[in-house]
Description:
The complex is a heterodimer. By secondary structure, chain A is an alpha/beta fold. Chain A has helices at residues 2-6, 13-26, 29-44, 61-64, 79-88, 116-123, 138-152, 172-175, 178-186, and strands at 46-47, 54-55, 69-76, 93-97, 129-132, 158-161. Chain A has two domains: 2-44, Helicase, Ruva Protein, domain 3 (Orthogonal Bundle), CATH 1.10.8; 54-190, 3-Layer(aba) Sandwich (Dna Topoisomerase Vi A Subunit, Chain: A, domain 2). A four-stranded parallel sheet of chain A has the order 4-3-5-6. In chain A, strands 1-2 form a two-stranded antiparallel sheet. In chain A, strand 3, helix 5 (79-88) and strand 4 form a beta-alpha-beta unit. The termini of chain A are far apart. Chain B is of the alpha/beta class. Chain B has a domain at 129-310: Glutathione S-transferase Yfyf (Class Pi), Chain A, domain 2. Chain B is 39% helix and 23% strand. In chain B, the strands form three sheets. In chain B, strands 2-1-4-5-6-7 form a six-stranded antiparallel sheet, covered by helices on one side. The A-B interface holds A 102-105, 109-110, 137-139, 141-143, 145-146, 149-150, 177-179, 182 and B 117, 119-120, 158-159, 162, 166, 169-170, 172-174, 176-177, 180, 182, 185-186, 188-190, 192-193.
Amino acid sequence: MQKLLKQLPGLGYRSAERIALHLLVEHPERLAALQAALSEAATHIRRCPNCGNLCEGDLCEICRNPRRQANHVCVVETVPDLLAVERSGAFGGHYHVLHGKLSPIQGIGPEDLNMARLGERLGEGGIHEVTLALSNDIEGEATCHFIEETLLRGRDIRVTRIGFGLPSGGGGLLFADATTLRNALDGRRDWNRPIDPSA
Amino acid sequence: MSDRPSDSVSGPLRIREVRLQNFRNIAEAAVAFPADRPVFVLGPNGQGKTNLLEAIGLITALRSFRTHEIRPLLHWGTSEAGVRVLLDHPLRGETEFHLTLAKGRKHLRVDGEDITRLGSILGLFPTVAFSSQDIQLLRGAPLGRRQFLDLSLSATDPTYYSTLRRYHGALKERNQLLKQGADLALTRAFDAILLPAGAALMEKRRAGLAAFASDLEEAYRRISPTAEEPELRYAPDISGARADTWQQTLESARLRDRETGTTTRGPHRDDWELRLKGHAARPFASEGQQRGLVLALRVAQARWFARHGGAHPVILADDILGELDPQRRERFWNALDHPAQIIATGTALPGGDPGGAWAVIEVAAGQFHTAAARSPLP
């Protein structure tokens, strides 16, 4: 049991031992509840067949929600990424979770990702904009290029990529590294200046 | 480089103290360096002179000037080595550099703060090591020359380093795809990163070498008494180092790349060469000219760091003073006419004056002792 727990992310040898002892010796009454919750989740929670998010029914909550714009799809790497965008409250469309990014070195190719379904969704029509919210590294960027080249080219769909720049809050410029500052400058936008009354 | 103010330097970087633990043949040592005088580390061969210099050299790019591996740096039978260097930085003030080395792993703390990106400290603590191996810059494989160029440019231009990393990251992934025989669309996805990064590298190398050439000319003039003008020539793998040629070359090499399972063309195969009187120095220059040229290259690197970085580099002269005749030694000091701290090693105290009496540190079996001050021999 301790060995299995240790394999979980964020748990080392000692934490695994603590949890095992907690459940078996100190609070055995919690074990049954945990057991039930785990097997319940294992039988009911699955990947949303439409977008790859976690879901309990036929579709995930987001794909089911009629108030969300189905014509705007945000492509993310992982479910935690999706949750992060959701928490921001800044996006009201649908998602597509790839469950990773292309990395030949780690043996991850397009067939290992939720890529074919994205192609189907785009082919079904009704999507006007795709926002690529993949990480700003070589693998994330190559995945964007691959999607663009194999799935989006020739389709009348607006393709956008999220901006990469400074974190919000004070002192952003001072503590930003050169790459981040460069991204922020490259991604600069026109500033709507107040109208000059003398002009 | 042209977009940076030159002569922006405020002062020299100075080593105040070095503490070593399980580093090569040194089990434990603490060596203090006087602030105002050149230091000579004196002792027979095999006692640990170069090891001390090598440890100091690590502050620049966390890389040894003798090996690319970590294992040889660890004291025999131990699994971890520690290098602590107390520095006076002209802009930062007193700074503590603490590097921990273990098999396949480096961990750096600067003033107690973990540094996870090499890019954030590259160029901050410049050193230039002169060693007898430098002749390989002229005679050796292109790899050594690329590393010389990459370090010089990375230390003075943060975007150079990030571009270089991007290029090599994309190259590694692309090579893996070629080995797997992956389809074209997948390779192209990485080409889309490789192409602009490679074009930017070539442009920065061309401009960087052109700017570096003036430092080299100045350094060689001071070291060599003749009127020969050295020439530094970029030898890019992609002819003309042009972005459009690069794209065409990558395209037409696609088939061969798949067969060999590696990217056969590109800036990762770039080179540069030294020329003297219109001829490549490697086959044509005399032994003396070649030695003068590599000495000038290092002096030029020191000038480069001083002009484009934030501090005058620490000069590490590993057993090279004994190789120079008195006249050349004199010219060598003259060429290094900036206020840099000098730390030299040798089996005997050299003649000539580096601008003040040597402070002598004697070394035996990995132990260092500060000796009484000595004046240079007449």
